[in-house]
Recover the amino acids of this structure.
């Protein structure tokens, strides 16, 4: 054996033993979720109406999912994403995250990660909600985030210009020349710089692009009242901030050990109409249709995720928790509804989902729940309505009289069996009577 060969073997053994002993750096995770934006608003999904060059670049350098589904509204999506559970198991009330829930921040903190969150909270029950909900949810620090910069924790305030934000335990009021989304992005960038040599988890539930539709600092007119134009400007500014986060990982030299996931929390506001591939799409926020639940999902992890890939893998919002845990070497706890899509991110077949389940009851004290299961094409509601969504995206023509052995009959049987696995009603709701505020 030559000396050079012995040196090579020794080097390989050193690398192997270092990795096995835990010396290899654990990957960072940045989970970004924009507010109120459907898949139709992104260039990488075919839009020519909106400017999203940074997210489009992520898609070119990584992977784009064509079948990612959120809940139809913000709080239900946040609860699902943070806990890995269907809303049927743990959703309490709008603006509330139950205090007994174990969340993504806690998993990462307990695994030794530095953790930060910035953007929109809406999980405590702020002061604008009725007494029966106010303060009944979860404080952000109780979910084990080390650094916190959030809008709408215990108080409602402006979110864009002259914002009021809750920063590490204190409410702070900013001046007219300050822009809330920019403050949050800067906060996270400073956190990343401070912990560039250590594993970190960043959760960025963005403030943009939720109404009110007002000009951004980059808008041509800072006094514009044009709702559609202001929304398009807000989409561009959201993309700009995502680009700054991604660029920071490159500037710090940590991009190759950082998984970045970008998505949206529900469909676009109903006041907004977009054009995609020659078809007009009215925003469907709050609806169970594709317009309310189908969202973008773009993932980047240089050297791990193959470049320029597009996948029709089904992704449910409960899947983000197990995926990020597996990506960082953590054990996936039993009892989750979520399923890791890490194999698909790596370009492997894995065992992709055959269906997703959605339980939607944002205000249990007021309205009955809705529920469905679906795959990429077929969709079955708990009330029996069955659709070929691929051919009937607006769900105007429910299918009936299914021919035995036909593709639709086979799909119906599969989805009916899946739906039977879930309770028909939420199990643990708040007491909606008059309660104390303690």
């Amino acid at each position: 054996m030559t000396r050079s060969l012995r040196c090579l073997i020794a080097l390989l053994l050193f690398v192997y033993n270092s990795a096995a002993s835990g010396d290899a750096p654990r990957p960072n995770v940045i989970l970004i979720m924009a507010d109120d934006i459907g898949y139709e608003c992104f260039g990488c999904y075919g839009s020519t109406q909106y400017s999203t060059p940074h997210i489009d670049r992520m898609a070119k350098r990584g992977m784009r999912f064509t079948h990612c589904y959120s809940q139809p509204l913000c709080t239900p999506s946040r609860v699902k994403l943070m806990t890995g559970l269907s809303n049927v198991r743990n959703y309490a009330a709008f603006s509330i995250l139950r205090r007994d829930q174990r969340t993504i921040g806690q998993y990462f903190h307990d695994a030794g990660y530095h953790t930060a969150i910035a953007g929109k909270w809406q999980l405590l029950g702020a002061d604008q909600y009725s007494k029966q909900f106010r303060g009944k949810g979860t404080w952000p620090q109780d979910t084990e985030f080390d650094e916190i910069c959030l809008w709408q924790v215990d108080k409602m305030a402006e979110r864009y210009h002259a914002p009021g934000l809750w920063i590490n335990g204190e409410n702070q009021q900013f001046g007219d020349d300050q822009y809330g989304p920019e403050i949050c992005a800067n906060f996270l960038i400073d956190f990343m710089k401070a912990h560039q040599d250590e594993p970190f988890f960043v959760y960025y539930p963005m403030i943009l692009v939720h109404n009110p539709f007002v000009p951004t600092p980059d808008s041509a007119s800072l006094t514009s009242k044009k709702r559609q134009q202001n929304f398009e400007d807000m989409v561009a500014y959201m993309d700009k901030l995502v680009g700054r986060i991604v660029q920071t990982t490159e500037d710090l030299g940590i991009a190759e050990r950082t998984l970045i996931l970008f998505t949206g929390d529900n469909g676009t506001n109903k006041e907004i109409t977009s054009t995609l591939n020659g078809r007009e799409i009215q925003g469907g926020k709050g609806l169970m249709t594709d317009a309310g639940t189908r969202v973008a999902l773009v993932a980047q992890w240089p050297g791990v995720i193959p470049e320029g890939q597009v996948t029709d893998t089904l992704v449910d919002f409960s899947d983000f928790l197990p995926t990020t845990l597996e990506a960082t070497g953590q054990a996936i706890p039993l009892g989750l509804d979520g399923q890791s899509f890490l194999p698909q991110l790596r370009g492997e077949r894995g065992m992709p989902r055959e269906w997703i389940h959605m339980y939607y009851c944002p205000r249990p004290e007021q309205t009955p729940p809705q529920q469905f299961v679906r795959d990429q094409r077929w969709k079955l509601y708990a009330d029996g309505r069955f659709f070929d969504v691929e051919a009937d995206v607006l769900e105007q023509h429910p299918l009936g009289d299914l021919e035995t052995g036909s593709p639709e009959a086979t799909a119906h049987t599969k989805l009916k069996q899946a739906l039977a696995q879930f309770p028909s009603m939420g199990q643990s709701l708040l007491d909606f009577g008059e309660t104390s505020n303690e």
